[in-house]
Amino acid sequence: MIARGEATHRGRIPFIGTFAVFLTLFAMLVVPAASSFAQDTAKVRFVHAVPGVGDASLRAGDREVGSAAFAEATPFANVPAGSVKLTLEADGGTLEADEQLQAGRSYTVVALAQGQSGELRVYPDGTPKPNTARLRMIHAAPELGSPDFSLNGETVSQGAMYKEATAYWDLQPGTYRAVLANPETGDPAVPPQQLPLAAGTTSTLVVLGSRGEPVETLLLTDGTAAPATAPQTGLGGLSGGDPSWPAAILAALLAGFTGGAAYLVLGRRRGRTAARGH
Predict the structure, then answer these.
(1) Using H for helix, E for strand and C for coil, what is the string for the chain?
(2) Which of 22-26, 85-89, 211-215 is least confident?
(3) Is the dihedral of CA 169, 39, 251, 240 positive or negative?
(4) If one looks up domain 126-224 in CATH, what number appears?
(5) How far apart are CA 102 and CA 42, in angstroms?
(6) Is the separation of the CB atoms in 49 and 111 below 8 Å?
């Protein structure tokens, strides 16, 4: 009985060695590829802020970013970094813009009303900071003029110009009462908004409207300094195109390998203990 138990454990040891070799090869091939992918791409999302125009879709080079209706935003899409032609297609026609996208950065592309037509404007997104909530505003509602913007009663921006993106404000995490006010009367230009701002996030508040559309706001998350939620089960977390997923798989495999090795070692020790007992 002792001999059979030892033979069984010896039979499992080569599997551990083979699995370790597999993990090493996985790390050498897949993880560097993911790092290279991140270095060669940028993230782009599209915000539709042209009133009176139906659904519009944005393309970066030959890569589709996504489609959105007025006052909507697409998720981020990975696109090749470097010089890229942005093309917006809608019922009203086509808009184009040539932009330089930096690898590893994220960008918010907004379609803005310009006279009876429109234009594309690119806003680089900010970098999140741990334990800090960062917020900026993009003024995309021309009929508002140049409103003042306040958070919890404190004016943080005066006379924001149409198409302007403010600098990011570094804030304590929490919920803020945001007010856009007419600089001449001080009256709210739109109903006050409650903005939940989490620690470690950068956010953009887009103000949209005009041409008969009611003025409204769209709060977008630009990025996070750490995962905001626990990882999802299954493969759902892989569908977003996050280039870090191979590293996550490697970490899971390493955890499984470590646990399996510990189980086998414990089993051998128990077998030896049992042998001594006999």
Answers:
(1) CHHHHHHHHHHHHHHHHHHHHHHHHHHHHHHHHHHHHHHHEEEEEEEEECCCCCCEEEEECCEEEEEECCCCECCCEEEECEEEEEEEEECCEEEEEEEEECCCCEEEEEEEEECCEEEEEEEECCCCCCCCEEEEEEEECHHHCCCEEEECCEEEECCCCCCCECCCEEECCEEEEEEEECCCCCCECCCCEEEEECCCEEEEEEEEEECCEEEEEEEEEEEECCCCCCCCCCCHHHCCCCCCHHHHHHHHHHHHHHHHHHHHHHHHHHHHHHHHHC
(2) 22-26
(3) positive
(4) 2.60.40
(5) 6
(6) yes
Phi then psi dihedrals of residue 193, to 5 deg: -115, 145
pLDDT for the residue numbered 64: 97
Q: What radius of gyration do the chain's Cα atoms show?
A: 27
- Which of 175-189, 232-246, 256-270 is the least confident region? 232-246
Calpha distance 74→56 (Å, rounded): 11
What is the band of 39 on the pLDDT scale with cuts at 50, 70, 90? low
Give the residue extent of every domain in the chain: 2-37+246-277, 126-224
Residue 159: how many CA atoms within 13 Å on its side-chain side?
Answer: 1
- Asked if 122 contacts 204 with a C-beta cutoff of 8 angstroms, the reply is no
Copy the structure tokens of residue 8.
């069984």
Mean pLDDT in residue range 213-226: 90
pLDDT at residue 272, rounded to an integer:
52
Residues 116-153 pLDDT 10s: 788 999 999 999 999 999 999 999 999 888 999 999 99
Per-residue pLDDT averaged across 219-243, rounded?
56
pTM: 0.69
